[in-house]
Amino acid sequence: MASAPRTRPARLLLSVVAALLPVLVLFAMFGAAPAQAADGYRYWSFWQRGGDGGGWTYAVQGPSSARPGDGDVIGFRFAVSEDSDDATRPRGTAGFTAVCADTPAKGGTKRVAVVLDFGTAADAPDHRTPPAPRTECAQVGEDATAGEALAAVAKPLRYNSAALLCAIAGYPESGCGDKVTTSGKAHAAPKGDGGEASDGGGGSGGPSAGLIGGLAAVVLLGAAAVWQARRRRV
C-alpha cells in the first residue's frame, strides 16, 4: 500500500513523454524531408562591371540595347537559374587592362572586355563538359551595343523570335531558355564573383537536428519538472 504513491510520479512522467513523443517524431520527419522542387531556366545571363574594379551587376537592359563605354567589362554566363536574383555570375577576375592589353586604342572605336563563361556540366543540356571560359577584347564602334561587341568576338550567336540570346559561339546547339526542374537547393547559396555556389549551401526547408534535439531536451526537462513537483506533493 505504501508504495502506491511513489508509482504515480513515474506513471505521470511516462504519460507526458508518451504524449509528446509523436511531436518529436513529426519534427524528425519534416527535418529529414527533401527540399521542394522548383522551376528554373537554362539560359545566358548578361552582366556588367566597370573597368578593373567592382563586382558583377546583373544587367537591367538586354545586350541589344545596353551600350558599354570604352574600358568597360561585360560578361555572359550560361547556367540554370530560377530568376535574376538567383542567377550565377561569370567566373574569373580578369579586368579590362588584362583582357585588352594586346589591343591598342584606335580613334573612332572603343574597347570592351568580354567575359564568356559557358557554365558547368551540371548546367549543360546534356550534362556534358561545356567549353572552357574565356575572355576577349572587342574593338567596336563608339556607339556599339553589348550585343555588337559580343558578335565581334563570339560568333555565331543565336536569338529566338523574342530577341532572347540563345547561344554564344554556337553553344548550346539547341534550346533557348528551357524550363528545368531543380531541387530548390542546388541554387540556394549565394553566387559570388569568381566562384560557384556550394551544393550544400541551401536550407532543407525543415527544422535542423539542433532544433529537434533542443525540443527533445525541453520535453524531458518539462517532464522532470512535473515529476519533481508531484514528488514534493507526495
Task: Explain the overall architecture.
This protein has two domains: 4-33 and 206-233; 38-182, no CATH class. The chain has four helices and eight strands; from the N terminus they run αβββαββαβββα. It has helices spanning 4-32, 96-99, 146-153, 209-233, and strands spanning 38-49, 57-58, 73-81, 109-117, 134-141, 158-159, 165-167, 178-182. Strands 1, 2, 3, 4, 5 and 8 form a six-stranded mixed beta sheet that branches. It has a two-stranded antiparallel ribbon with strand order 6-7. The longest helix is centred in the N-terminal third of the chain and has 29 residues, at 4-32. The protein is globular, with a radius of gyration of 29 Å.
